[in-house]
Amino acid sequence: MALFEKVAIVGLGLIGGSLARALRRADQCASISAYGRRAAALQQAVEQGIIDHYCLDVRAAVRGADLVVLATPLSTTEPLLRAMREVLQPGCIITDVGSAKGVVVAAARAALSPEQLGLFVPAHPIAGTEQSGVEASFAELFEDHVVITTPLAETDRAAVQRITQLWQGTGARVVELSVEHHDEVLAATSHLPHVLVYTLIDCLARLQDQAEIFAYAAGGFADFTRVASSSPEMWRDICLANADPLLTVLDRFEDHLQDARQAIAAADGARLLEIFSRAKQCRDDFAQARGR
What is the DSSP string of 74-123? Predict the structure, then answer.
C-alpha cells in the first residue's frame, strides 16, 4: 500500500525530480503532480514517467494532494505557501528540502494556519550534484545519504513519522535536529565550503595570468572546485538565508587562515606540519567513516 495517494512536488529540479523518481521506484505514492515554470521540461518529465501530470499554477498542482514537497529556492517559500494555503486539503502534510531551516520555518509560521503548521515537517536531504534541472535528476541520489528533519514543537509526530518513512524509502538515513543546530552545522559543512570555492575561483579568474593558471590546473583542483558549477542564484539565497551562522563560521575560518599565513611568513614548518597533519587525520577519519 502506498504511503501517500497524491504527492505534489513544487519545483521539479534536481532534488524534486530525483525525489519523484525515487518515490516512483519505491512505490511510495499513487500519483505525482508537479509545479514549475518550464512547461517543456515538465512535459518531458511526464513523457519519461517521472511525474503523472503538471500545472503551471501552484494552486492547481497541490489541490487534492495529501503531501506537498517544496523544492524551490528559499526566497520563494513564503509566497508559495501563501498561494497554496487556501486550497490545501485537510490533513495534507507539507515538507521541504531547503538547505537553511530558520528562514523556512519563519516563512511557514507567517503563511500557514495553526492547523497547517502542525502538519509542516521541515526537512533537508544532504545530497546533490553540481548539476541542476529535472534532466539531471536520478532515483539513486539519496541512497546512503542523510536527510535531516527539524520538526517544530507543534509538529504532529505522526506526520514526522510519515516523512521519515518516505525518505527511508529512497534509501536515505534520517536524523532529527533542532532548526538552530541544523543551520549551525550546515553553515560549517556546506555553506562555508561553497563560499570558499566560489571566492577562490573568482579570485583566480581575476588574476592577470588566469589563462595559464587554469591551463595547468590538475585533477585535485577540479575535484576541490567542483561545487562552483552549482547554481549561483541558489547559493546566493542560501548564504543570505543562513547569514548569522555562516558569518560566525567565516570568522573562525579567517582566524585559522591567518594562523597558516603567519606560519608561512615565519617559515614555521613545525606549525604548518601540525596544521596539515591534524587536517589529514580528520579527513582520513571522515573518508573511512563514509567507506571511501
Answer: GGGHHHHHHHHTTTPPTT-EEEE--S-HHHHHHHHHHHS-HHHHTTEE-E
Structure confidence at residue 107 as a pLDDT band (50, 70, 90): very high
pLDDT value at residue 133: 86
**Integer Cα distance of 154 and 119 in angstroms:** 9
Cell of residue 167, nine digits = 525518505
Dihedral angle, C-alpha 80, 84, 90, 91, nearest 10 °: -20
Spell 198-211 as b/e; 16+ CB within 10 A means b. Answer: beebeeeeeeeeee
Q: How far apart are CA 31 and CA 7, in angstroms?
A: 6
pLDDT tens profile 120-165: 999 999 998 888 888 888 999 999 999 999 999 999 999 999 999 9
C-alpha cell at 94: 507539507
| Average pLDDT of the segment spanning 205-212 | 79
pLDDT digit string (tens) for 220-234? 888 889 999 988 988
- Phi/psi of residue 245, each to 5°? -65, -35
Q: What is the DSSP string of 270-283?
A: HHHHHHHHHHHHHH
According to DSSP H, which parts of 112-209 are helical? Answer: 114-117, 157-169, 179-186, 192-205
Three-class SS state of 144: coil
- The Cα 250–Cα 290 span in angstroms is 26
